[in-house]
Design brief:
This protein has about 80 residues and is an all-alpha fold. The protein has helices spanning about 1-5, 25, 75-80.
Length: about 80
């Protein structure tokens, strides 16, 4: 019975958060004066950083010349002569 093991444990209580613990408040980025944390609360220990961007890698050109090109002037003259 897996439920019997879980029944004996006390549920973890969520820590009470405050604006003083918010990343935005600590870094003076918050302009709100509320009595409780707002919807944008982020814990300061998270060290918010943007994700690292992917590197852009150029592929090597596979063809030495285009697959299709206009005929040269000499080739057009030969076709219509």
């Amino acid at each position: 019975m897996a439920q019997g093991k879980q029944a004996g444990r006390a549920p973890k209580r969520a820590q009470k958060v405050s604006c003083e613990d918010c990343f935005f408040r600590v870094n003076m980025l918050c302009a709100l004066e509320l009595t409780e944390p707002c919807a944008t609360f982020r814990p300061n220990e998270a060290q918010l950083r943007p994700p690292q961007q992917l590197r852009f890698v150029f592929r090597q050109e596979r063809r030495s010349r285009a697959a299709w090109a206009f005929p040269s002037a000499q080739e057009q003259a030969a076709l219509h002569a």
